[in-house]
Amino acid sequence: QVQLVESGGGLVQAGGSMRLSCAASGAIFSVGAMAWYRQAPGKQRELVAIVTSGGSANYADSVKGRFTISRDNAKNTVYLQMNSLKSEDTAVYYCNAVIRRSSWSRPNGDDYWGQGTQVTVSS
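Given the sequence above, the corresponding structure tokens read:
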């Protein structure tokens, strides 16, 4: 079984910073792209940032220049450093990873999700 466990959410004032972490554990053969999504009340889940296994990152326009995604491949962990937070960043943040559980798994891997962590930015 594969699990993604997130940590680091909470309440922060506008303009502040917060760091999210997400660790993948269990029967893992390889980890591909890892990403952070978020979902605000009444809105669809959206991609915030994604990083490939090689370290290439892309960001939603709304967070470019403020958020940084990174990963530690040895720990199967992805991070999201969030700076200059705004009230509109308030959402539940979900970790996502493409994982192969064994060499027999399909080459593209399967999607796994964390349970979500609440980030609330007060103005």
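The chain has a mean pLDDT of 96. Try to locate this feature in the token string yourself.
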